[in-house]
């Protein structure tokens, strides 16, 4: 729509094109004194892959598929947040009227100073009643929401560092904290619990002051243009420094000579015109320093060590964040940390939405950022995409998808507050970043080809696959320039972004047919593998089981070295995979025999939690014989599989069918299912990697109830790219085959070397 284009945002239906409908439940607007933020909720209809077991009764199933695959329509909830300057308020209202108002809409939620300023205009234009919400309540609700639901929401700013943005680990307990919201003015709020908070101070000198004085000084009316001017200015041409007053550093007070003694101080004596850039920079320093000192004083007064800065004054602008960080550091002597929010400007809009949706209790759900639709944090450099920054500020749009089930920490994490899922921070590691971005670029054509091939009966599959390819390629180029766009850049985030882009263009499970075929083939071999294992002595069987686990993990279509083999050698199977692992003992094996020794010498574990990886040979011939051995020893097993598809990873629904077929062949598995000693659960994830801080709540409950004392994490994505350093309260076994030569070289091994990491927690 023209209204959307005016904001630099495309309407979801026209942008995505492949959702058959978007039904808007309600919408709201937050109008502050300077900027307006539009928040709206939509129900999005898109395609999902479903599997269903065939009724094989009375049939010869030898050549029948294992299960039926169908693509169905599913409706999910999505939150959208857009921002723009108040100049475009009427255009915004046109957008709402054309796209969001339906016959059921009676009230529009509004908060902030503009809720009063534009009340009459809104009601006249839309024919709706304006329901004003308390600004402070909305800000706090919005802040709590992003702190809980966006893992890489918070960052510290580091001046002159290769990694300007240092993202923080989400602490499970977010309280207490100080929120400094810098909009037109400044509000300082102490937040102690979800519902307990108080306004403890503030200032009339804020973003509106910068904008207003900046307009008077430079004749520049646009907020973003003022920030652009400031980024090019030199404040020392305008400000009087300590060394200008004293001729050097003021040693007796420990002051640096470069410290500002008087903002705009030189304008009283200099007989010259100052540049717009220098005046904008001086003004930005003056206001940022004032806010920083004020926030620090309040934090020390209330014994708080976390200060979150929000509001659109910050805008991801380096000078603002640098000055505030310096002020906090200087005045607190390093005891208080200045923290910034990636979605700083939307706190009030999110909070107002939550207030309006209280009857639906949105906080009972978990939400995840949709990387395909969100713009991400824009570059702080004015030279990187300057037109985007001028047009849209920090970001254009944030999209949050409601997840089917609430997500929580794994109860067995040793310290959830220090847990970091990812092994390598690509934002920090330039060499690794360059390699992995290139790796994903080179694989992109193959992924697009696979996506199109997965829907041979669709007339527009090729067209959609090309649009997916272009979208993901553009994301990768953005991340080359702005690796911090969506938080800490990792292999996991690159994989997840790719999955989000595939889903946007209705490719919910490109590997569904591959998994169906490989599951069927592997099931035919299950009994012979079990018979072979049962013929071995105890110790020999343990090593054979481990070798089988590792050999099964070779079958990963997400690894180019493997997919090349599987496509060129169709007969490559379980035994061939075992031969690839002949280097066991010489490759990367970490504490290789510890687990077997523990099993032999100690009593059986009470309950083992196993995070499975791939479909086919991996789960059927690798994982299930291992599960069977644990059950035979008296250990209960929780088998956790992905809730949704990713690459050729086994999903929960596929695991149900596979387990049913195995139980029909094996009395150990059949008995364990009947007696609920083998339990199949979903992880709550649709990623090839694993974040143990965001797992399905039902899984966490089960782990507690069954007193789980062993965790097994399998696969390169789950045990190497993530969780390699994860510390747990119980024994753990992390195992994977390294199917990437660059990664193997980094770890000191060769391709198809193995990781077998058995860890016992310190008492």
From TrEMBL:
Reactions catalysed: (R)-4'-phosphopantetheine sulfonate + H2O = (R)-pantetheine sulfonate + phosphate; (R)-4'-phosphopantetheine + H2O = (R)-pantetheine + phosphate; (R)-4'-phospho-S-sulfopantetheine + H2O = (R)-S-sulfopantetheine + phosphate
Domain of life: Eukaryota
Subunit structure: Homodimer. Interacts with PKM.
Family classification: Belongs to the type II pantothenate kinase family.
Regions crossing the membrane: 21-41
GO annotations of cellular component type: cytosol; nucleus
Alphabetical keyword list: Acetylation, ATP-binding, Coenzyme A biosynthesis, Cytoplasm, Hydrolase, Manganese, Membrane, Metal-binding, Nickel, Nitration, Nucleotide-binding, Phosphoprotein, Transmembrane, Transmembrane helix
Cofactor(s) needed: Mn(2+); Ni(2+)
Signal peptide coordinates: none
Protein task: Phosphatase which shows a preference for 4'-phosphopantetheine and its oxidatively damaged forms (sulfonate or S-sulfonate), providing strong indirect evidence that the phosphatase activity pre-empts damage in the coenzyme A (CoA) pathway. Hydrolyzing excess 4'-phosphopantetheine could constitute a directed overflow mechanism to prevent its oxidation to the S-sulfonate, sulfonate, or other forms. Hydrolyzing 4'-phosphopantetheine sulfonate or S-sulfonate would forestall their conversion to inactive forms of CoA and acyl carrier protein.
Name of this protein: 4'-phosphopantetheine phosphatase
């Amino acid at each position: 729509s023209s209204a959307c284009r005016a904001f630099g945002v495309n309407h979801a239906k026209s942008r995505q094109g492949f959702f058959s409908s978007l039904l808007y439940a309600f919408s709201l607007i937050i109008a502050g004194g300077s900027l307006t933020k539009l928040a709206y909720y939509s129900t999005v209809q898109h395609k999902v892959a479903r599997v269903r077991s065939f009724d094989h009764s009375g049939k010869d199933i030898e050549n029948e598929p294992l299960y039926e695959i169908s693509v169905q329509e599913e409706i999910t909830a999505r939150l959208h947040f857009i921002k723009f300057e108040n100049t475009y308020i009427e255009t915004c209202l046109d957008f709402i009227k054309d796209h969001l108002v339906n016959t059921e809409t009676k009230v529009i939620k509004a908060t902030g100073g503009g809720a009063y300023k534009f009340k009459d205009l809104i009601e006249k234009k839309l024919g709706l009643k304006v329901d004003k919400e308390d600004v402070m309540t909305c800000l706090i609700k919005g802040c709590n929401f992003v702190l809980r639901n966006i893992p890489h929401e918070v960052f510290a700013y580091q001046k002159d560092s290769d990694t300007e943005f240092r993202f923080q680990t989400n602490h499970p307990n977010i309280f207490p904290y100080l929120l400094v919201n810098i909009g037109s003015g400044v509000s300082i709020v102490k937040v102690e619990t979800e519902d307990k908070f108080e306004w403890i101070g503030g200032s009339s000198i804020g973003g509106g002051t910068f904008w207003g004085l900046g307009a008077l000084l430079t004749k520049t009316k646009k907020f973003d243009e003022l920030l652009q001017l400031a980024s090019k200015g030199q404040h020392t041409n305008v400000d009087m420094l300590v060394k200008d007053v004293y001729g050097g550093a003021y040693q007796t007070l420990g002051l640096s000579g470069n410290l500002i003694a008087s903002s705009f101080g030189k304008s009283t004596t200099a007989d010259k015109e100052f540049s717009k850039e220098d005046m904008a920079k001086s003004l930005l320093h003056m206001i940022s320093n004032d806010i920083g000192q004020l926030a620090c004083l309040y934090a020390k007064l209330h014994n708080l060590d976390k200060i979150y800065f929000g509001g659109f004054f910050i805008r991801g602008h380096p000078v603002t964040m640098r000055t505030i960080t310096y002020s906090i550091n200087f005045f607190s002597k390093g005891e208080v940390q200045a923290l910034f929010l990636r979605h700083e400007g939307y706190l009030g809009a999110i909070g107002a939405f939550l207030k309006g949706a209280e009857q639906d209790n949105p906080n009972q759900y978990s939400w995840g950022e949709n990387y395909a639709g969100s713009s991400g944090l824009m570059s702080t450099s004015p030279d990187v995409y300057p037109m985007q920054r001028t047009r849209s500020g920090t970001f254009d749009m944030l999209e949050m998808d409601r997840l089917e089930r609430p997500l929580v920490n794994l109860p067995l994490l040793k310290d959830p507050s220090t847990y970091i899922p990812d092994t390598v921070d690509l934002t920090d590691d330039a060499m690794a970043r360059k390699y992995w971005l290139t790796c994903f670029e080179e694989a992109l054509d193959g992924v697009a080809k696979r996506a199109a091939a997965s829907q041979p009966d669709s007339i527009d599959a090729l067209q959609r696959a090309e649009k997916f390819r272009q979208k993901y390629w553009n994301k990768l180029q953005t991340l080359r320039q702005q690796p911090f766009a969506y938080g800490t850049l990792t292999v996991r985030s690159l994989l997840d972004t790719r999955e989000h882009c595939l889903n946007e263009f209705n490719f919910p499970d490109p590997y569904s047919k591959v998994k169906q075929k490989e599951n069927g083939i592997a099931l035919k071999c299950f009994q012979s593998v079990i018979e072979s294992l049962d013929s071995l002595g105890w110790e020999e069987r343990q090593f054979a089981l481990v070798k089988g686990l590792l050999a099964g993990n070779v079958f990963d279509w997400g690894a180019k070295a493997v997919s090349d083999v599987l496509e060129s050698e169709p007969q490559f199977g379980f035994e061939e995979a075992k031969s690839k692992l002949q280097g066991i003992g010489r490759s990367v094996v970490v504490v290789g025999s510890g687990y077997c020794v523990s099993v032999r010498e100690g009593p059986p574990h009470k309950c083992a939690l196993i995070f499975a990886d791939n479909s086919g040979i991996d789960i059927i011939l690798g994982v299930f014989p291992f599960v069977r051995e644990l059950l035979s020893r008296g250990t209960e097993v929780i088998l956790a599989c992905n809730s949704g598809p990713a690459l050729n990873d086994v999903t929960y629904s596929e695991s149900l069918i596979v387990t049913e077929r195995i139980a029909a062949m094996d009395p150990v598995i059949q008995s364990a299912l009947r007696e609920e000693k083998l339990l199949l659960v979903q992880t709550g994830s649709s990623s090839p990697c694993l974040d143990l801080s965001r797992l399905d709540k039902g899984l966490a409950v089960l782990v507690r109830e069954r007193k789980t004392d062993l965790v097994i994490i399998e696969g390169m994505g789950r045990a190497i790219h993530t969780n390699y350093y994860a510390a747990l309260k119980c024994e753990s076994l992390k195992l994977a085959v390294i199917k990437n030569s660059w990664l193997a070289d980094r770890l000191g091994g060769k391709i198809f070397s193995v990781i077998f990491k058995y860890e016992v927690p310190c008492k």
